[in-house]
Design goal:
Blueprint (H helix, E strand, L loop, with lengths): L2 E4 L13 E5 L9 E5 L2 E5 L5 E5 L6 E4 L4 E4 L5 E5 L8 E5 L9 E7 L6 H8 L4 H5 L2 E4 L3 E2 L5 E2 L16 H15 L2 E11 L1 H12 L6 E5 L17 E7 L9 E2 L7 E2 L1 H12 L5 E2 L16 E6 L7 E6 L18 H11 L6
Parallel strand pairs: 1-2, 10-11, 10-14, 14-15, 15-16, 16-21
Antiparallel strand pairs: 2-9, 3-4, 4-7, 5-6, 5-8, 9-11, 12-13, 17-18, 19-20, 20-21
């Protein structure tokens, strides 16, 4: 693949691509600041992390917020800027299909690794890259921040898995990544998707909760949603596919309650909550296993529970019988990708954002 080095938040155009791999090394300083007026108040939003500073004279600046959004009384005198994007220079790989051209738009997929896993490690397991050309989409493989043990993680809902309490705002960071890629490449705004495993699956749910204005659908594989419903008030519907092994010992299929650690909903409760968010239903079950996702399982091994949503966002749960946290996945018919990656991509592409 052709490799280019780019700054993800630099807005200068670059030569048309004919497909290949781009490595983005973000140097983030000075994000775009959006201001909306609501009566006597102003609401400011920015992406990519960082802090909001205020000044009355343009020379002396004071920090007024470290997380977006932020509301202040309406003023024509004060100045605002976003500085010091402390997420750091994370390496981000973007894979562009060979069919890429300037007069066509392409779906965008974010693939989020699990705790301690890293982007390259998860890609080698899940194998999304081989699907880029066959399904004509743009794939972004971002990297979480690393803790003191050099283990990469996402800070999902402030609960999983920022063990050292760094407070990194990954939701804003990933929103910034999406916005920056949209400015660089021709993205189909109706088809922006997030897929994540484990810690990345929790992060996918947070992205759906907080960025439903741009996210059309997510896949949470062995992840979950936080039980505190006040942490998730989506502005619109998002299609949700939850895939989970029934005997997962790391992120239990039935969830966890407060005495046993960070409380999070089980697989079924997670999808039921999103069916409620989307206003869809009723629940339908396939009586027999209808998918084969795990290698060495002879016959179908996965049950489907569906909440058909039509134009309001479908919700499904795929329960892998005897599935662990990192099951040995079966391969696609051509042997280049996993079957789960292939059918998850197909499932999402069939569900664009309608609103």
């Amino acid at each position: 693949m052709k490799r280019l080095l780019l700054c993800i938040f630099c807005l200068a155009p670059f030569a048309p691509l004919n497909g290949g791999e781009i490595e983005l090394n973000p140097v983030i300083d000075g994000a775009e600041l959006q201001i909306a007026y609501d009566g006597a108040a102003m609401e400011m939003r920015w992406w990519g992390g960082g802090r909001l500073e205020e000044s009355t004279d343009g020379s002396t600046w004071n920090v007024v917020a470290t997380k977006s959004p932020f509301r202040v009384p309406r003023s024509d005198k004060n100045l605002y800027r976003v500085r010091d994007h402390w997420e750091g220079n994370r390496s981000i790989t973007v894979n562009v299909p060979q069919s890429y051209r300037d007069d066509k738009v392409f779906p965008l997929f974010l693939l989020l690794h699990g705790f301690s896993q890293g982007a390259d490690s998860f890609e080698s397991y899940f194998k999304m890259k081989p699907l880029v050309d066959s399904y004509d989409f743009i794939l972004v493989n971002p990297e979480g921040t690393r803790n003191s043990l050099e283990l990469p993680f996402w800070n999902a809902f402030g609960k999983c898995c920022d063990i050292e309490r760094s407070g990194v705002d990954d939701s804003s960071y990933l929103r910034g990544v999406i916005e920056a890629v949209r400015k660089k490449l021709n993205i189909d705004d109706r088809r922006v998707y997030v897929l994540g495993h484990s810690n990345g699956g929790f992060m996918a749910y947070q992205m759906a909760c907080e960025h439903s204005d741009i996210i059309a659908g997510i896949v949470s594989f062995a992840g979950g949603s936080i039980s505190d419903k006040s942490n998730c008030v989506p502005a619109g519907p998002v299609s949700v596919l939850h895939v989970h092994g029934i005997v997962d010992p790391i992120v239990p299929y039935v969830g966890l309650s407060e005495p046993f650690g960070v409380p999070f909903d089980g697989a079924l409760n997670s999808v039921e909550t999103w069916a409620e968010h989307n206003g869809v239903g009723p629940l339908t079950n396939d009586v027999f296993a209808s998918l084969n996702l795990v290698a060495l399982d002879f016959g179908n091994d996965t049950l489907r529970t569906r909440f058909p949503g039509n134009r309001h966002g479908d919700v499904e749960l795929w329960s892998i019988l005897n599935g662990s946290h990192i099951p040995l996945l079966s391969y696609s018919s051509d042997g280049t990708s996993t079957r789960l990656a292939e059918i998850a991509v197909e499932w999402l592409l069939q569900r664009p954002k309608f609103n």
